[in-house]
Amino acid sequence: MDSVISRRLADLYETGQAAVLCIVVEESGSTPRSTGSSMIVFPGGEIEGTVGGGVTEHRVIEKALELLKKGTGSLVYRETLSATEAALEGAACGGSMGVYLEVIGRRRELVIFGGGHVGKAIARLGDMTGFAVTVWDEREEFANPAHIPWGKTLCCSLEELPGKMPRFHGDTYAIIVTRGHVLDADVVKLLEGREAAYMGMIGSQRKIAFVRERLLGQGVSPEFLDGIYQPVGLPIGAETPEEIAVSVLAEIVAVARGGDVQALRNAGAMKNGKNHSK
Predict the structure, then answer these.
(1) Is there a contact between 117 and 241 (Cβ–Cβ < 8 Å)?
(2) 3-class SS at 43?
(3) Whole-prediction pTM
(4) If we measure between CA atoms, which residue out of 97, 111, 112 comes closest to residue 51?
(5) 111/199 Cα distance (integer angstroms)
(6) Which of 32, 96, 141, 189 is the Cys-Cys partner for 80 at CB 3.0 to 4.6 Å?
(7) Among the listed residues 40, 99, 103, the one whose alpha carbon sits nearest the alpha carbon of residue 69
(8) Phi and psi (nearest 5°) for 132?
(9) Are the beta carbons of 248 and 233 closer than 8 angstroms?
C-alpha cells in the first residue's frame, strides 16, 4: 500500500467519512495489477489509487458503491478476464483476480435520545467502546459539552431534531432514554422508517405497554414496534445508571458482533427475577 493511500486512510478514520478500501488479494495469469495494489472509492464515485483501470476497475467501483449504500460490510469480488477484456485491460492474455472490498472510515454510531443520568452513562461507555456518540436532549442543562464531553450533543426541540441528528444507516444504534413516557413515544414515532442496526427503549413493562398503545393509536406499525429492543439492555439486574449502561452496551455489542441476543436475554431473565426500569 503506497503512502498516499495510507495518508488518505488516516484522514478518513479521523474525520469519520465513509469510503471503501479495495485491495487486490488474488492474482493468476496476466492481470492489470499485482497483489497488494489498492484503491479507495468515495461515495460520489471518485477514487484514489487504482486496481488496474478498465472494465475490472469499473466493476469494482460499482460493487464499492453498493456497499456504501448499505453503510457497512465487506466482500471479495472475483473476476476472470476474457481475452477481449484482457486486451482492454492492457494484458497480453486473460487472467483472474480477486479484490477485497471493505467499508472504512465510518464509525459505528450511537445516538442517544435523553441526556439525563442514564443517557450520560451510556454516552460515556459508548465512547469508551469506540462508538461515535451523539446525545440529544431538549434541555440545555443536559445537552451540552460540559455535561456530556463524549461525542456530540444536540439541544433543540423535537420538531427541529430531524434536520439536525445524524443520518441513520446500517451501523446506527439508537437508544431512547428521555425524561418521560410521552416524549419517549414521540421519539419512537420520529424514528419509524429509519434504517438502524439497533433501536432500544428503556422502561418497565407497564411503561412499554403504555408507549405501544399510544403509538398504535397514532398509526405506528406494530412491525416497527416489535423490532425495538424493550426493555433495552441485557437483563443483568442492573439498577444504577452505570450498571444500566453496561447492560445496554453489552446488548449493542452482541448485536454488532452477531451474538445470540435472544439467548443472552433468556439466560439473564432466568437468573434475575427483575430487569432494570427507568
Answers:
(1) yes
(2) coil
(3) 0.71
(4) 97
(5) 9
(6) 96
(7) 103
(8) -85, 115
(9) yes
Give dist(CA 206, CA 222) in Å, integer: 17
On the 0-12 / 13-18 / 19+ scale of CB atoms within 10 A, 266 is exposed
In whole angstroms, give the CA distance from residue 19 to residue 38: 13
Q: With H, G, I as helix, E, B as strand and everything else as coil, classify residue 110.
A: strand
Which residues pair with residue 19 across a beta bridge?
A: 104
Contacts of residue 184, defined as CB under 8 A and 6 or more positions apart, other chains included, come to 113, 176, 177, 178, 201, 202, 203, 207, 211
Nine-digit cell string for 73: 460490510
Side by side, the strands of the sheet bearing 109-113 are 152-154, 132-136, 109-113, 172-176, 198-201
Query: Using only C-alpha atoms, what is the Rg of the chain?
Result: 23
pLDDT per position as a tens digit, 164-203 = 998 888 889 999 999 999 999 999 999 999 989 999 999 8
pLDDT tens track for 18-62: 899 999 999 888 777 889 999 999 988 999 999 988 888 999 999
The count of other CB atoms within 10 Å of the CB of residue 69 is 9
CA pair distance 191, 215, nearest whole angstrom? 12
